[in-house]
Write a structure and sequence with these properties.
single chain; alpha/beta; 2 domains; binds nicotinamide-adenine-dinucleotide
């Protein structure tokens, strides 16, 4: 069992909610940060099952909101020791049809948001001489069509992971990334609608290209988060694990 303070962004839904629940089930005190108000219900669920959790509504691309959120968490639960940069979304389009606003908003959440969260939390980890940061990337970091903004943001996040792993290694802080494949969440519903398919049709089409023969669940991703954030996971840093049911395009 761990009893660390863990902050998960985008914890009101999907992978973030699953990760927050898994960290809480391990005994961690969890802060669920989301720009929507959905994190409150997830925090309530964790508390009802005996865990410790708080929800904070904040947009992680806003520096003042990030500072305020981390201050609130620190005052309530204590200094953040585990950070999971998970918040994200896609605004897909062929590059020539991509509005600048969609480029900027995807970069602002995935890259700027992860940078701001790291800057706000890692000083306390450095002081404690122990910390864990996990960035949620995607297999799209390798390549994907009609989503140059998302691919660039996730590839950037993996570069950020390696660079910050070097900067923070001397202080006992590890920084790693997880690249999920298809995981059924709200995001999948958006992708299905964009492809003109029902959710079930979309899942079946995706499933056919996955070696493991099934799509992923938030629990599959949370398993990898628990590996990277374990108390003694001290010697793995700057790495990316693709949790995608086997290599596929
Ligand atoms: N679902 C997949 O198939 C899949 C695959 C690969 C990677 N991912 C990545 O996993 C992460 C979680 O995605 P999901 O599928 O659980 O999506 P989701 O839509 O279910 O949840 C994402 C959450 O992030 C929150 N969020 C978005 N921008 C935010 C911001 N600026 N500030 C605060 N909160 C914000 C949303 O409100 C939402 O609650 C994302 O980074 C996504 O890119 C998902």
């Amino acid at each position: 069992m761990n009893s660390r303070v863990a902050l998960v962004t985008g914890a009101g839904s999907g992978i973030g909610a699953g990760t927050a629940k898994a960290l809480a089930a391990q005994g961690n005190r969890v802060a669920l940060v989301d720009r929507s108000d959905r994190a409150q219900a997830v925090a309530d669920e964790i508390r009802e099952s005996g865990g410790t959790a708080m929800a904070v509504q904040a947009d992680i691309s806003d520096p003042d909101a990030v500072t305020q959120a981390v201050e609130e968490v620190t005052a309530t639960l204590g200094p953040v020791e585990v950070l999971v940069n998970n918040a994200g979304f896609a605004r897909d389009n062929m590059v020539l049809d991509m509005p600048l606003a969609d480029w900027d908003s995807v970069m602002a959440t995935h890259l700027r948001g992860s940078f701001l969260m790291l800057k706000a939390t890692a000083p306390a980890m450095r002081e404690a001489g122990w910390g864990r940061v996990v960035n949620i990337s995607s297999i799209s970091a390798l390549v994907d069509g009609d989503r140059a903004n998302y691919v660039a943001a996730k590839a950037g996040l993996e570069g950020f992971t390696r660079a910050t792993a070097l900067d923070l290694a001397p202080f006992g802080i590890t920084v790693n990334a997880i690249g999920p494949g298809v995981v059924v969440t709200e995001m999948t519903k958006v992708s299905a609608a964009r492809a003109g398919r029902t959710l079930d049709e979309h899942i079946e089409v995706q499933r056919q290209s996955i070696p493991r023969g099934r799509v992923g669940t938030p629990h599959d991703i949370a398993r990898a988060v628990l590996f990277f954030t374990a108390e003694d996971a001290d010697y793995v840093t700057g790495q990316v694990i693709y949790v995608s049911g086997g290599p596929h395009g």
